[in-house]
Amino acid sequence: MKRSSESQALYERLLPEAIAASEKAWCPHSEFPVGAALMTADGAVIQGCNVENVSYGLTNCAERTALFSAICQGEKPKSFRAMLVYAPKVALISPCGACRQVMVELLDKGCPVFCVGHDETAARDWTVEQLLPGAFDAF
Ligand code: THU
């Protein structure tokens, strides 16, 4: 993807963190590891990985692990600079609907979400608004 130098710098900072996060995934049921990396307002990076359960519906995706960890560490909703999601077993990862709804709540609608699989040339840079247009939002 063609990016501004600012976006490219965010991408390059977040990709190795998301790869490292994916290596910590607990995914014995799907064998589909995913890693996420979330940049805070002050430039720190918080990782997330998918954590599965034998009661399959209890699985937590990498994106939500990163977002929930960040909130628990005291980061403020909508204060984040960018998120990157990485999944090595697909050419391009696309976040699930549940994660998109959580992103709407905790990320600014213009926040970039870099999505990357094993084929970096297929990577896509989406915003939260692009991922869930017309979302159910604060009432
Ligand atoms: N998964 C994520 O962590 N993020 C995504 O964007 C898509 C799916 C996880 C959930 C489950 O552990 C595995 O990938 C297969 O669906």
Give a short overview:
This protein has 139 residues and is an alpha+beta fold.
Task: Give a topology summary.
Blueprint (H helix, E strand, L loop, with lengths): L4 H18 L12 E5 L5 E5 L12 H11 L9 E5 L10 H10 L5 E5 L7 E4 H4 L8
Cofactor: Zn(2+)
GO molecular function: cytidine deaminase activity; identical protein binding; zinc ion binding
Catalytic activity: cytidine + H2O + H(+) = uridine + NH4(+); 2'-deoxycytidine + H2O + H(+) = 2'-deoxyuridine + NH4(+)
What does this structure look like?
It catalyses: cytidine + H2O + H(+) = uridine + NH4(+); 2'-deoxycytidine + H2O + H(+) = 2'-deoxyuridine + NH4(+). With 139 residues, the protein is of the alpha+beta class. The chain is 31% helix and 17% strand. The protein has a five-stranded mixed sheet. The longest helix is centred in the first third of the chain and has 18 residues, at 5-22. It is globular and about 40 Å long. The site of tetrahydrodeoxyuridine has 15 residues, from helix 2.
> How much helicity do the residues have?
25-40%
- Low-confidence residue ranges: none
Total beta strand runs: 5
Q: Write the H/E string, N to C.
A: HEEHEHEEH
Distinct ligands, ions and cofactors found in the model:
tetrahydrodeoxyuridine
SS content category? alpha+beta
First-residue to last-residue Cα separation: 36 Å
The CATH homology group name: Cytidine Deaminase, domain 2
CATH fold label: Cytidine Deaminase, domain 2
**Spatial arrangement of strands, main beta sheet:** 2-1-3-4-5
Number of helices: 4
CATH structural class: Alpha Beta
- Global Rg: 14 Å
Please state the second-level CATH architecture.
3-Layer(aba) Sandwich
- Main sheet properties: 5 strands, mixed
Counted up, domains total 1
Cα shape: globular
Cofactor: Zn(2+)
Binding site for Zn(2+): 61, 96, 99
Family: Belongs to the cytidine and deoxycytidylate deaminase family.
Protein name: Cytidine deaminase
